[in-house]
User: What shape does this take?
Amino acid sequence: MTEQKRALVTGLTGQDGSYLAEFLLKKGYEVFGLVRRTSSPRLDRVEPILDRVNIVYGDLLDQSSLQRVLGNCMPHEIYNLAAQSFVPTSFAEPVLTAEVTALGATRLLEAVRHVHPGARYYQASSSEMFGAVRETPQNEMTPFVPRSPYGVSKLYAHWTTVHHREAYGIFACSGILFNHESPRRGEEFVTRKIARAAARISQGRQTELRLGNLEARRDWGFAGDYVRAMWLMLQAEQADDFVVATGETHSVREFCERAFARVGLDWEAHVVTDESFLRPLEVDLLVGDASRAREQLGWSPTVSFEGLVDMMVDAELGCAQ
Ligand code: NAP
Ligand code: G4F
Assistant: This one.
C-alpha cells in the first residue's frame, strides 16, 4: 500500500489556504495547516473542513516553531501561503511586511534545509513583483521592478526560493500568481469591496462606495483555479517558476460596471473617488502570459472575468455558491 501523502499549508486561514486545503483533502492528502496564535480564532474560512485538517500552531516570525512543526509533520509537500498580503498595509508597516513576507520564507526554507530537505516546497510569489512593468504581457523572463514594500518583500522571497533550489538542491517552486479572487477574498481588497458594496447598495444597506484609483488594471482570476496550479507545480518532474494568470486585463472601473450591472444599478451613481485610498506608488497594469504553466503543467483557468464578478456579487447577495 502506498503511504498517504502529507501536506503542510501555511496561511491556512487565508483565502488561498482554505481553497488549497479543500483541494488537497479531495486528492486524499493528510493536511496540516499552520495557524498563528490570535486572541480570537480566525478559522471561519476553514470551518467546514476543520474536522479533517490538523491544525498546528506556529508563526513565520518564529524559526523554532517552524522547525518543530516540520519535524513533527514531516510533510511531503509544503505550501508557503502565509504573508502580510495587503499592499496598503505594507506601506504603513514595511518592517513587519518584510519580516513576515520576505524573511518568513527564508525561515521556512532554512527549516526545510535542516530538518526535512526532501520535502517539496511551493512559494506564493506575486505579480506585484513586476510593478512598473517593463513588458506586456508579463512572463517568467520579465524583469522585476516592484513598487511597494510588499512587492519588494515578495521579490526577496522569490529569490530566496530560487537560491535554495540552486544552492541546496531543494525541490522549491515559485508560483508567480496574478490577482485571484473569490467570495472568500478579504473584505479590504478591491474586488470583494466592490462586490459587497454593490449587493448592499441594491438591498438598501449602504448608500455609496468610496474607492481610490479606478484606472488600475489587473489580471483577475478565480482562486479555486489558482490553487490547482500550485499543486501541479509540486507534481512536476523538475522544480521551476511559473506565471499563473488568465491573460486578460480589466480596470477597477470595469469591475464596478459589471458588479453594479449584476444588481441592476448604474455604478456611476454610487461610486465616489476618495484620495485616501490612493497609494504612494501604484502598479498601473498587470496582465500575465501563463504559456509555461499551460504547456508544462497542463493548467488553464476555468472562470472568466464576467463569471468571477457575478460569482462574487451573487455570494454577497446570499445566493448558494
Ligand atoms: P490572505 O487571505 O491575506 O492570507 C494570508 C495568510 O497568512 C493568513 O492565513 C494569515 O493568518 C497568514 N499569516 C499572516 N502573518 C502570518 C505569520 N506571521 N505567521 C503565520 N501565518 C501568517 O492571502 P491570500 O489571498 O490567501 O494569498 C495567499 C498567498 O498568496 C499570500 O502569500 C499572498 O501574498 C500571495 N498572493 C496572493 C495573490 C492574490 O491575488 N490573492 C496573488 C499573488 C500572491 P491570519 O488569518 O492569522 O491573519
Ligand atoms: O485588490 P487590491 O488591494 O490588490 P493588489 O494591490 O493588486 O494586490 C493583490 O494582488 C497581488 C497580486 O498582484 C497580491 F500579491 C497581493 O497579495 C494582493 O492579493 O488592489 C487592486 C487595485 C490597485 O491598483 C488599487 O490601487 O485596485 C485599486 N483600488 C482602487 N480603489 C483599490 C481601491 N484597492 C483597494 N484595496 N481598495 C480600494 O478602495
Summary: DSSP finds ten helices and 13 strands in the chain. The first strand starts at residue 6 and ends at 10. The pocket of NAP (ligand 1) is lined by residues 10-17, 36, 38, 42, 59-61, 81-85, 100, 124, 126, 177, 179-180, 186 (CB under 6 Å).
